[in-house]
Amino acid sequence: MQQAGDNLPWVEKYRPEGLNDVIAHEDIISTISRLIREDQLPHLLFYGPPGTGKTSTVLACAKQMFGENYRSMTLELNASDDRGINVVKDQIKEFASTQKIFSTGIKLVILDEADAMTSAAQAALRRVIEKYTKNTRFCLICNYV
């Protein structure tokens, strides 16, 4: 009988669950951990070649910040799939502007491959970031800057 995780890709099956599980530069991980602990997490920009752990690190941040609630407190989009201005106006703005019931603190928007967003979407995203910076943090993940 197959288990629920048997069909997952290897990178998903063994993705780190928390920042302590991430194999990366210790100073970076300890700085991010401290910022989360002190509720001082800024907007983040991760960039580098594919396969270097950018997305895994940000997802580990989300899991560490929100625990079991991380799926409801996090919006994860792959900007290369959803890169138009309508995604920013509809999905991202909607998520950033709504208050989650029974939760306090910030929410997290993760935009993977954000360097693939159109210029119009980038401009719209800038306005959303400026407007909702009090309750939402944005993590942009890029292959090229």
TrEMBL record:
KW Zinc (keyword) present: no
Record's keyword terms, sorted: ATP-binding, DNA replication, Nucleotide-binding
GO BP of this protein: DNA repair; DNA-templated DNA replication
Gene3D superfamilies assigned to the protein according to its UniProt record, in alphabetical order: P-loop containing nucleotide triphosphate hydrolases
GO MF, one example: DNA clamp loader activity
Source organism superkingdom: Eukaryota
UniProt-listed SUPFAM superfamilies: P-loop containing nucleoside triphosphate hydrolases (SSF52540)
Location of the AAA+ ATPase domain: 40-139
Keyword ATP-binding attached: yes
SMART domains: AAA
A GO cellular component annotation in the UniProt record: DNA replication factor C complex
Listed InterPro entries: AAA+_ATPase, ATPase_AAA_core, DNA_Rep/Repair_Clamp_Loader, P-loop_NTPase
Family to which this protein belongs: Belongs to the activator 1 small subunits family.
PANTHER family: REPLICATION FACTOR C / DNA POLYMERASE III GAMMA-TAU SUBUNIT, REPLICATION FACTOR C SUBUNIT 5
Subunit structure: Heteropentamer of various rfc subunits that forms a complex (RFC) with PCNA in the presence of ATP.
Protein name, UniProt field: AAA+ ATPase domain-containing protein
Organism listed in the record: Vannella robusta
